[in-house]
């Protein structure tokens, strides 16, 4: 069965609307929801008052997993954004940042980052079965991931293929369904060109959507709209991305309360062409050398 996250949240001391973070596993999170008056400026900087070393100091900051925060309760049903502060995640994000990273290395780095984020996304979420088995030295109590309920992996083509490459090496039972979505470069609106989703998901279905770049939010919102119509509850959906930006997170928080997003990093801005700044560039082109 799915497991509800019961973790303390932490918030930045500020009179401004804020993200909050959760130290759970110990991934910091940023809950967003309709009850939160979210205001994101284009640079994703907030005014904060730090209480480090007992002193109060006002300055601007970017979201940072290492920022000192004060505990506050999590509001049930908020969208949560997890940014795991693991050094391997930072390493692969840095490889993806580099404009000189060759296409094969870029694609491999995207796959490794996806592996780590899927691991984080599946924690406390997979259905399990318990029992006893005979080990070489005696009887042992055991717990397995239930193979009768495979996780639905939904990469958004093209770039989502690289992010989802190692999903089956992390999860014991999966089914992969492809969604092909592209974005009009003038209007920045998405359009669907391939839909290999099932006609209906079961009530127990768990779905992980993989889209490397959450920039303007148009593509991920369109994908979620399609999946939601197939009967999946928000609590049964995880979104995995390499990098996210404020416009996409704002749209998700407004439309999909209870969704959990797992990101390698959150970047501050999106330019007029819909690219995340500093971002990774075009993840699809860089993954496949086109």
Compute the number of strand runs: 18
Q: State the separation between the terminal residues, measured CA to CA.
A: 42 Å
* Rough outline: globular
Taken in chain order, the helices and strands follow as EEEEEEHHEEEHHEEEEEHEHEEEH
Question: Stretches where pLDDT falls below 50 for ≥5 residues?
Answer: 1-27, 32-75
InterPro entries: PRTase-like, PRTase_dom, UPRT, UPRTase/APRTase
Family: Belongs to the UPRTase family.
Pathway: Pyrimidine metabolism; UMP biosynthesis via salvage pathway; UMP from uracil: step 1/1
EC number: 2.4.2.9
Summarize the structure in short:
This protein has 290 residues and is α/β, with parallel strands linked by helices.
Descriptive account of the structure:
- By secondary structure, this protein is of the alpha/beta class.
- It is built from seven helices and 18 strands.
- Helices cover 23% and strands 30% of the residues.
- The strands form five sheets. Strands 6, 9, 10, 11, 12, 13, 14, 15 and 16 form a nine-stranded mixed sheet that branches. It has a three-stranded antiparallel sheet with strand order 2-1-5, with no helix packed on it.
- Strand 15 (237-244), helix 6 and strand 16 form a beta-alpha-beta unit.
- Helix 1 packs antiparallel against helix 2.
- Residues 1-27 and 32-75 have low confidence and may be disordered.
What is the topology?
Elements: E1 9-11, E2 20-22, E3 45-50, E4 57-62, E5 70-72, E6 80-82, H1 87-97, H2 103-122, E7 128-135, E8 138-145, E9 151-157, H3 160-163, H4 167-170, E10 174-176, E11 179-183, E12 190-195, E13 207-210, E14 213-214, H5 218-228, E15 237-244, H6 246-255, E16 260-266, E17 269-270, E18 276-277, H7 283-288
Parallel strand pairs: 6-16, 9-10, 9-11, 9-13, 13-15, 14-15, 15-16
Antiparallel strand pairs: 1-2, 1-5, 3-4, 7-8, 11-12, 17-18
